[in-house]
Amino acid sequence: METTRNRQHPIAMSIIYQCLILIESNQEIDIKEIISDTTGEDFDDVDLYIKQVSVSAIAHIDEIKKSYVPNLRKWTWERLALIERAILMLSYSHYYYVGNVDKKVVINVAVELAKEYLDSKDYKFVNAILENTLK
Questions:
Q1: How confident is the model at residue 120 (pLDDT cuts 50, 70, 90)?
Q2: Which of 16, 24, 84, 113 has the lowest CB atom count within 10 Å?
Q3: 64 to 27, 32, 39, 44: CA distances (angstroms)
Q4: Angle of helix 31-39 relative to helix 5-24, nearest 10 degrees?
Q5: What is the mean pLDDT of residues 107-131?
Q6: Among the listed residues 4, 2, 87, the one whose alpha carbon sits nearest the alpha carbon of residue 46
């Protein structure tokens, strides 16, 4: 099914979030199954962007975490809500692994997701972290 990029972002975020839940509870991840279940499509039929950004985020989780840690200031990665981590991981993966996108666009997408899924002012935190992390 063809979906717009604006619809793909929350789907990819949800996939990453589900993976983070499994990681936190020390369960195995079958990313293809999670992608298929979340989209309601066979993995091969899922939009390439959703697959690329989700798989890259999980495959590079340690690298992504390390890139954010210096910019968290008085916070730790583990202290962030899982949905917040999912938004940050989506942004990093979109910018560095899927590529060919302007930094401002990636930050705008993250801010919009943060406004929808996080507490009212958390989008400012997400914006600042991304502004300092994405180069």
A1: confident
A2: 24
A3: 20, 21, 24, 26
A4: 130
A5: 96
A6: 2
CA dihedral (83, 89, 92, 96) in degrees, to 10, reads -150
By CB atoms closer than 10 A (0-12, 13-18, 19+), residue 42 is exposed
Length of the chain: 135
CA distances (Å), origin 69, targets 2, 78, 79, 133: 36, 10, 11, 9
Residue where the block lists tokens 């390390």: 66
Residue that is written with structure tokens 């981590």 in the block: 85
Give the Cα separation of 79 and 25 in Å (integer): 16
CA 98 to chain centre: 12
Helices of type H across the chain: 5-24, 31-39, 48-59, 61-68, 82-93, 103-117, 122-133
Residue 25 is classified by DSSP as: T
Query: What is the distance between the alpha carbons of residues 1 and 26, in angstroms, rounded to a whole number?
Result: 32
> Which tokens go with 125?
């935190």
